[in-house]
Amino acid sequence: MTSETIAAGTEAEASPTFYLVEEEGHDHSGAGGTMLGFWIYLMTDALIFATLFATYGVLSTSYAGGPVPRQIFELPLVALNTALLLVSSITYGMAMIDMEAGHVRRTQIWLAVTALFGAGFLCIELYEFSTLIAEGATPQRSAFLSGFFTLVGTHGLHVAFGLMWIAVMLVQVGQRGLITENKRRLMCLGMFWHLLDVVWIGVFTFVYLLGVLR
Amino acid sequence: MSVSHENHDAGQGHSSRRGYLIGFGLSALLTAVPFYLVMTGVLSDAQTTAIAIIVLAFVQIVVHTLFFLHVNTRSEGGWTLMALMFSVVIIAIVICGSLWIMYHLNSNMMPMEPGSMPGM
């Protein structure tokens, strides 16, 4: 055997070894059980929000003589916030498409764009909270405001953690590229991010829009 | 090897640019309409507006679940959908049950004069 055939032999051996590793323990997309497990985690997260929605629903008219939703909610701001989060969902979708196509650079760019929209959302929410608190509409003021800050604040906290996760994934993808593990992580992050958008649909409808109607 | 690749594409809710764009279009519409209804007050009756925006919210949640979360009968052999259905039932019980009980609790409490409660 010449050295070339040996080299070709090792090369041929090297690639099936790679695929074996990939197939072992992962059914499809290298993420069989993980995706379902993460989905079940997300369902439990949805349950947390369900209890917070229920609490808010029960307390939503307990104003204790304090401000009512119509006086303190600014719908144009909420509409802007909703738009930011909705756009961040589609930009994440674009990142997923580029990830599946194997474009590392474009995946990173879409992830960064998603993070920017998410950060915009969070900034507006913090601005809204600080305005409310400056007006005296603090969580301590009434049961309605306690429920409001808990529900919306928990959602905002989730978005903040989502942003951290995006930052971590930007570094991971930058260092190791779109390897199987990173694809799996990005798919989990995507489900997390889209679920936050679904929760926000409930927030803007039941808290803000119905609050202003009341 | 190639077989596993086909599995990989069919196994996950496979996303396409078109799917995301359709979902986004629907979602944008389903967001804009309720804001429009409430901010302009075109439906003069508040109750009708409330029902309309609640219905639109549920439709939008379904749109997001299908187009962004890619839940369908095939993903993870149907277990994703199963977990979702279970969660929806629990969420409905938690939210509707809490509101129902607390509403009745409130309306069954007699309004009391201050000081009419013994020992206060």
DSSP helix fraction of chain A: over 70%
Q: Return the structural class of chain A.
A: mainly alpha
Output the number of helix runs of chain A: 7
Question: Biggest sheet of chain B, open or closed, and with what strands and sense?
Answer: none
Number of helices of chain B: 4
Largest interface: A-B, 52 and 49 residues
- Share of residues in strands of chain B: under 5%
State the order of secondary-structure elements of chain B, H for helix, E for strand: HHHH
What's the gyration radius of chain B in Å? 23 Å
**Overall pLDDT of chain B, averaged?**
83
- Please identify the oligomeric state: heterodimer
Poorly predicted regions of chain B? 1-13
The beta-strand count of chain B equals 0
Query: What gross morphology of chain A would you assign?
Result: elongated
Order of helices and strands of chain A: HHHHHHH
In which range does the helix fraction of chain B lie? Answer: over 70%
For the termini of chain B, the CA-CA separation is 79 Å
* Biggest sheet character of chain A: none
Bulk shape of chain B: flat
| Number of beta-strand segments of chain A | 0
